[in-house]
């Protein structure tokens, strides 16, 4: 949008512009709650400190003259920012604490100018701040995976042990940029600690004070298998067992025929080598083609025939502890649920499998996945405040909130947005929105550990009736946290 020209478009004598961000809610949508994550990175990277300099002003002046073919750049306004605030932005941002689970349709953060001279700054930074849609959507999607995995793991094993490594981030090569990999990879790490997206680990380290947020294991790729030639497939697999004698190792086994590989190589020629391994040094076989559910069921049956299985405490079958499967092809929310349901129907525990997810986790999403919007709701003109809003006759769902906003729990324990500055003094004090940024300074920071704790699953999140329920708002007042000890 031509934000550069907006300062010319506001009414005369405007001194305050107040806007907010939300994930709008429509009845019947798939996701009813969101995980708030990523604002701290954007603030640290792009808004904190001295962001306006004379050099930048001159560069922008020339650039926008060329772009618009007329003089529309507010050189005077930006120089005032430089002179009055030493290049720091006179803006206040209040936001939900990162990691909080908030029902759709509620305010997540607000933005306002702190100096009447700079009313135009509030929505000038809309484009950058609206990119919050991406980390919020990835963190939300990742948590939905976690709900499904937790439900099936609890039902078929009796516990949630190992839940935080059940979904591995395979998405690095499938995203649009290094920054997407970093931000999306870090968003996944709010819920899991299993990843191959190193950029996400570095972001968590640099911006969220987590020295090492996720882990991986040695894993074969098709090039390292087929470079041996088809006639030496067994040698390729044996090399991996030799090179990584301790610790888990994942071996893609479908370069030619996954079923023959499991039956005749892993289950015959290398059977003794596999059985020598321990639970802490498991062989993890990776199918990578075909129908995910059908292929995985057939593979697990072959492995049962060759290696046997046992029965866990709730009556489901488990392969020997030195043998597991990871399915990383064709994985999304629907296929994970389908695979786990079919495994359960066949008597298999979710303990047997891990999942890898790439583009469905980090790339096949957009701003409309959660209907993210940034809208102005309050202005002050000539010292008088006015609640403002949009209300399109062609789409009522795009109507926006009015006035100054606060976020609270009502008497029933549900989170709700209070509009039009209607919060009573005691409610304002309990506002869930925290001032995180003011006049160039970050006032509140969160560590990834704190964020993970806030985003943890509760018992209601994994009950079968809860998934896709119309209002499944997560309450802090839930009695029992089922994730103790996982993070």
UniProtKB/TrEMBL annotation:
It is found in: Nucleus; Cytoplasm; Secreted. SUPFAM superfamilies: Nicotinate/Quinolinate PRTase C-terminal domain-like (SSF51690). It comes from Sinocyclocheilus grahami (Dianchi golden-line fish). Keywords: Biological rhythms, Cytokine, Cytoplasm, Glycosyltransferase, Nucleus, Pyridine nucleotide biosynthesis, Secreted, Transferase. The gene is nampt2. Pfam families: NAMPT_N, NAPRTase. Residues 461-487 are annotated as: Disordered. The keyword Translocase does not apply. This is Nicotinamide phosphoribosyltransferase. Coiled coil: none annotated. GO terms for biological process: circadian regulation of gene expression; NAD+ biosynthetic process. It comes from the Eukaryota. GO terms for cellular component: cytoplasm; extracellular space; nucleus.
């Amino acid at each position: 949008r031509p934000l550069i020209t907006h300062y010319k478009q506001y009414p005369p004598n405007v001194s305050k512009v107040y806007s907010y961000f939300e994930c709008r809610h429509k009845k019947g949508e798939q996701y009813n709650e969101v995980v708030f994550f990523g604002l701290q990175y954007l603030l640290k990277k792009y808004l904190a400190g001295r962001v306006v300099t004379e050099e930048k002003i001159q560069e922008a002046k020339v650039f926008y003259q060329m772009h618009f073919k007329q003089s529309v750049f507010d050189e005077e306004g930006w120089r005032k920012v430089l002179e009055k605030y030493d290049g720091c932005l006179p803006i206040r941002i209040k936001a939900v604490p990162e990691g909080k689970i908030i029902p759709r349709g509620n305010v997540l953060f607000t933005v306002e100018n702190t100096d009447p001279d700079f009313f135009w700054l509030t929505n000038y930074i809309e484009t950058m701040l609206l990119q919050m849609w991406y980390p919020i959507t990835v963190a939300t999607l990742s948590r939905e995976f976690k709900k499904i995995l937790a439900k099936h793991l609890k039902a078929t094993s009796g516990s949630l042990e190992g839940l935080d490594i059940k979904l591995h981030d395979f998405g690095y090569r499938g995203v649009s940029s290094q920054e997407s990999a970093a931000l999306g990879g870090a968003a996944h790490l709010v819920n899991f600690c299993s990843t191959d997206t190193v950029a996400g680990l570095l972001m968590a380290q640099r911006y969220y004070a987590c020295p090492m947020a996720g882990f991986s294991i040695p894993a074969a790729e098709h090039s390292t298998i087929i470079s041996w030639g088809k006639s030496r497939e067994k040698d390729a697999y044996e090399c991996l067992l030799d090179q990584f004698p301790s610790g888990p190792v994942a071996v893609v086994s479908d370069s030619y025929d996954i079923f023959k590989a499991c039956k005749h190589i892993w289950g015959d020629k290398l059977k003794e080598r596999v059985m020598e391994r321990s639970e802490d040094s498991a062989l993890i076989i990776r199918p990578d083609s075909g129908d995910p559910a059908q292929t995985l069921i057939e593979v697990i049956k072959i492995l049962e025939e060759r290696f046997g299985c046992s029965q866990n405490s709730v009556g489901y079958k488990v392969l020997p502890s030195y043998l597991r499967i990871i399915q990383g092809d064709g994985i999304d929310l629907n296929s994970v649920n389908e695979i786990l349901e079919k495994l359960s129907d066949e008597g298999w525990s979710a303990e047997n499998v891990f999942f890898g997810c790439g583009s469905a986790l980090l790339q096949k999403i957009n701003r409309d996945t959660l209907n993210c919007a940034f809208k102005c709701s309050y202005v002050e003109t000539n010292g008088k405040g006015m609640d403002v809003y949009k209300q399109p006759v062609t789409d009522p769902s795009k109507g926006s909130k009015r006035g100054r906003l606060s976020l609270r729990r009502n008497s029933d324990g549900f989170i709700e947005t209070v509009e039009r500055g209607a919060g009573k003094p005691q409610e304002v004090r309990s506002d869930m929105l925290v001032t995180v940024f003011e006049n160039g300074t970050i006032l509140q920071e969160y560590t990834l550990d704190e964020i993970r704790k806030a985003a943890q699953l509760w018992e209601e999140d994994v009950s079968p009736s809860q998934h896709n329920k119309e209002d499944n708002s997560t309450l802090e007042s839930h009695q029992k946290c089922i994730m103790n000890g996982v993070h």
